[in-house]
TrEMBL record:
Claim: Signal is one of the keywords in the record: yes
Family statement: Belongs to the TonB-dependent receptor family.
Residue ranges constituting the TonB-dependent receptor plug domain according to the UniProt record: 56-157
Species for this entry: Duganella fentianensis
Name the record gives this protein: TonB-dependent receptor
Length: 982
């Protein structure tokens, strides 16, 4: 066998130059073989499709991507929404935009995001301890290309099991000469108009402006690129939810707190189609309608300087900055169930769900809360890169960067908050779960007689900060004419800090009096109009009246009336503070060879070795007591926090093998196998045991980390057939399999941390039961204790409620009372899973007609699914779902049009909800988007975009569809823009 000169195809300029920084390749210097036909030059959208296709065709392993058709003009306004067009990629949405990605059924925490080949830090207060990158922080204007590596690569930083996504920005040397453009858009978000007045932004139309400047000197030695963008968006969304989760599951023959009455017991006659003795069922903890107004301002900028002192050396210095500021205002109305006397009707087993659930109560609370908070996320990255080619056969590269991501409060009221108010006039309360929308009905509400008053409050301060310091050294050596050796070393230090504190006033039974507030602060609203797109909202039994209020105004009134103003602001220090550091050192080698056989073969064999040290220090508050302040509120009292430090260490040897066989000039077979790792979430490896601040009658909850956790390891197999039957046309069919081990199983263990005593079951409690109270009637129990044991140890009686006459005060657990039981969530490497799937891609342009289609479908399967008919902790793969895209395309010299439909099937999003080990499923979701561009001239163009034109809703449920977790109505948004090229 001999080794002729490799026949490496030349990509389009955009792809070849963009790949230069992250995947240095001999292809940059190669020329198209003489016997290959010269390509026809295309521009615009077709150019983008062709470039993306060539990226897939000419890469080692399974790679997909999206390439900008022109500098400063990316196909979508959001990077996540662009990524969802790629087969196997699904997105999670936040405030109506794509934010996180799931790839081939592997969730967001196990997909690694790089910026120009560099590992990026993460920070997201919505997921305080996760590793998932939030694409909502990056605007698309400065992005030249997205590369999605679906198979392992020896030269890539570790952490991506589903995929490694490389976000590549524009470089001046990639497109010599002067390139500049400026664009402006007006964004109209229809969702802002469907909100109560107290939380609605003043305007629904907001501006976006962006610009890019790139230039090189005549001699090609200097280059500069500057990009910037500023975007505002005002939006809203409305959600109906069982926001604290489902209590249970219970077996039909159980009899304890939260269960429905057994046959023969009081209230059993009120049950229709009772769950069988072996059936599982759950009961709702509460029902909440919440209305959310959001304003967002996003700023992005990047400066890139390039210098080529000699032809063999190119240096690049770049700085990237992004800021995402979000202000949220919320109003809600809710009813909390205390599992007293009830009536209910049920679906058939083996998992029964309530079609109707009703509790018989009087003078309970109709809770109406508000929130007003703001957050800010900043990302900064300073990097330096040098590429040196001392000979025609050797290429050396040095890359180093310091990058930070920080999220925190941007409001004097904290990063999140809740100010509760209530009218204590709630009578019998019913929820109808028979449709998509849960219908809450309340009897006896009287807001005139039982006026609104502020009850409890929570002010939270959160901080998350990530830092990455990374240095990479890479080399590429042409050993023979058809072979090359790649090698390199990598030193990375990743630091994560997550901290929070709660200023919580657990006076949910009433902190002030109705007379403390003028009636003008409460603004009457109706519920139905904000859920008109959801089936069931037209039910005439809906409790349709509630009150909104201005958070800042009522907060000040409550602070004055209580005489405790400090309790109505967030703390300035953190009660919980976890700081974790990972130091990794790695080295790799990869050998690529072209084989001159009947069917030309290219192989790449790689090996990467990596060691990681973990140190986690956590500040954890010490719990000192449990107090009983209202019917089912048992807040924990905390003392001074203390630091604990734990460590861990692991190493991995990760092989990889890629091969492609050229069956014909237009057809390829690919085979890849290798091992990749995904690191544990930060909360899984942080030290210390943390208790949640509010317990219930049945006990409390908490969490504990394990810094000795190993990463999840995946053994991967990929097979793919690709047919490139036209300049922009291709078809591909791929199979993949992943065998996953070392998953951190999340389990709940019963424990008694800090040996806290609870009043439930204690001396005073038992005396109340012995004198006629029943366990479920906590109002009776509290009245008896206050009226018979006031002044005794642990019993502090307050004034009787002026309206209900019930006693108020605080009861504290005493020595001799039972020790409270806590369900502590912890983690261990104890789970394994496998998944496999198919990907089908078709991209076809219909000759010179201008019409085309791009479509794909991904099927993912795993035998490890959640068993809805099982009680207790389970391990199941989250994020696993089928997905599909269909994009219709038209382009001529003046117009370019894309009509896109994106669909994602049902998937498991979590194995725990607010009450315990209950699954949460996101139901199937489809969305239609439209983009229309018109070029008035070569320099001036206009754009129209419509997002979610079908006003799709999102819905989640637990073990059955009737066990609603939440249903959200959003809406469409529209953009009209203009762009001018200089």
């Amino acid at each position: 066998m001999h080794y002729p000169k490799a026949r490496l195809k030349l990509m389009t300029l955009a792809v070849a130059s963009a790949c230069a920084g992250a995947i240095p390749a001999v292809a940059q210097e190669a020329t198209r073989a003489a016997d290959e036909p010269q390509s026809v030059v295309v521009t615009g959208l077709r150019q983008s499709l062709q470039s993306s296709m060539n990226l897939k065709r000419n890469s080692d392993g399974i790679v997909d991507g999206i390439v900008a058709e022109d500098i400063g003009k990316f196909p979508d306004t959001n990077l996540a929404e662009s990524l969802q067009r790629i087969s196997g990629v699904s997105i999670d949405r936040s405030i109506g935009e794509g934010s996180k990605i799931t790839v081939r059924g592997v969730g967001p925490d196990f997909n690694l995001v790089l910026l120009n080949g560099r590992q990026m830090p993460t920070s997201n207060l919505g997921d305080l301890n996760g590793r998932a990158y939030d694409f909502a922080n990056l605007a698309s204007e400065a992005i030249a290309q997205l590369q999605v590596y679906k198979t392992g690569r020896a030269d890539s930083p570790t952490g991506g099991i589903g995929a490694t996504v490389n976000v590549m920005t524009a470089r001046p040397f990639e497109r010599p000469g002067l390139h500049a453009s400026i664009g402006a858009k007006g964004v109209y978000d229809s969702t802002n108009g469907n909100l109560p007045g107290d939380i609605k932004a003043k305007r629904s139309t907001t501006p976006e402006i962006s610009g890019i400047y790139s230039n090189t000197t005549a001699d090609g030695k200097f280059g500069v690129a500057l990009t910037g963008s500023y975007q505002e968006r005002n939006l809203g969304y409305n959600t109906a939810a069982v926001s604290s989760g489902w209590r249970g599951p219970f077996r039909g023959d159980e009899n304890n707190w939260g269960t429905i009455p057994q046959p023969g017991a009081k209230g059993a006659e009120n049950i229709t189609n009772r769950p069988g003795a072996t059936d599982l069922y759950s009961v709702p903890q509460n029902l909440n309608y919440n209305f959310n107004g959001v304003q967002r301002q996003r700023t992005n900028a990047q400066l890139t300087l390039q210098f080529k002192p000699v032809d063999t050396l190119v240096t690049t210095l770049d700085y990237t900055y992004s800021e995402n500021k979000i202000q949220t205002k919320r109003n809600d109305v809710s009813a909390w169930f205390n599992f007293g006397e009830s009536a209910s009707s049920w679906t058939k087993g083996p998992v029964s769900s309530p079609l109707m659930y009703k509790e018989f109560v009087s003078n309970s609370d109709i809770a109406m809360g508000a929130a007003d908070f703001a957050t800010r996320t900043q990302n900064k990255s300073l990097g330096f890169n040098a590429v040196w080619k001392p000979t025609n056969t050797l290429r050396l590269e040095l890359d180093t960067h310091h990058s930070t991501a920080q999220s925190g409060a941007d409001s004097p009221f904290g990063s999140s908050n809740t100010l509760g108010s209530a009218s204590f006039s709630r009578g019998n309360t019913t929820v109808d779960f028979s449709h998509d929308f849960p219908v809450l009905s309340i009897e006896g509400a009287d807001f005139t007689k039982y006026g609104q008053q502020v009850t409890g409050s929570v002010f939270t301060n959160q901080l998350m900060k990530g830092i990455v310091d990374q240095t990479q050294v890479k080399g590429q050596w042409k050993v023979l004419e058809a072979s090359e050796l790649k090698f390199g070393a990598n030193a990375t230090k990743v630091s994560n800090r997550s901290a929070f504190s709660n200023q919580q006033r657990d006076t949910w039974g009433g902190a002030t009096k109705p007379s403390d507030y003028p009636s003008s602060v409460w603004h009457q609203e109706s519920v139905r109009q904000y859920f008109d797109k959801i089936d069931g909202s037209g039910n005439p039994n809906l409790f349709n009246q509630f009150y909104t209020f201005n958070f800042a105004q009522v907060r000040q009134l409550a602070a004055t009336a209580s005489g405790l103003p400090a309790l109505y602001l967030p703390k300035t220090t953190f009660d919980n503070d976890s700081r974790t550091e990972e130091k990794s050192n790695s080295g790799y080698v990869q050998f690529n060879t072209d084989w001159d056989t009947k069917f030309p073969i290219r192989t790449a064999i790689g090996l990467r070795y990596e060691t990681t040290d973990v140190v986690s220090t956590a500040l954890v508050p010490a719990a000192t007591a449990i107090t009983w302040v209202s019917q089912n509120e048992f807040p924990i009292t905390f003392g001074e926090p203390t630091f604990t430090t734990l460590t861990g260490k692991y190493h991995n040897l990760l092989p990889s093998f890629d091969s492609d066989i050229e069956l014909t000039r237009d057809q390829k077979l690919r085979f890849s196998m290798g091992e990749t790792i995904g690191r544990p979430r930060w909360d899984q490896i942080q030290g210390g045991t943390t208790l949640n601040s509010l317990a219930r009658a049945y006990g409390g909850t908490g969490s504990a980390g394990n810094p000795a956790l190993k990463p999840v390891k995946s053994k991967n197999l990929d097979l793919s057939y690709e047919w490139y039957y036209g300049q922009q046309n291709f078809f591909s069919l791929g199979y993949f399999r992943k065998n996953l081990e070392n998953y951190a199983g999340q389990s709940m263990v019963n424990a008694t941390p800090f040996n806290l005593h609870t009043p439930v079951g204690g001396k005073y409690w038992n005396a109340a039961l012995a004198n006629g109270c029943v366990m479920t009637d906590t109002t009776c129990v509290r009245n008896y204790i206050f009226r018979n044991f006031a002044g005794q140890p642990g019993v502090v009686r307050g004034a009787d409620d002026a309206i209900t006459g019930n006693a108020t005060g605080v009861i504290t657990g005493q020595p001799g009372d039972p020790v409270a039981n806590f369900q502590i969530t912890s983690f261990a490497n104890q789970k394994a899973a496998s998944l496999n799937g198919l990907e089908v891609n078709l991209q076809h342009m219909f000759g010179n007609s201008g019409f085309g289609i791009s479509t794909n479908y991904t099927y993912v399967h795993s035998g490890l699914k959640y068993n809805n008919a099982s009680i207790g902790e389970q391990f199941a793969l989250v994020g696993l779902s089928n997905s599909a895209n269909v994009v219709g395309i038209y382009e001529d010299k003046k117009f370019n049009v894309r009509l896109a439909y994106n669909w994602r099937g049902e998937f498991l999003s979590s194995t725990f909800d607010g009450s315990g080990p209950n699954p949460q499923y996101v139901e199937p979701y489809g969305q239609v988007d439209l983009s229309v561009g018109y070029a008035l001239s070569e320099k001036l163009s206009f754009q129209f975009e419509g997002i979610n034109l079908t006003n799709s809703i999102t819905r989640t449920h637990s073990r059955t569809q009737q066990q609603l977790e939440g249903v959200t109505q959003q809406g469409a948004r529209y953009m009209v823009g203009v762009r001018y090229k200089f």
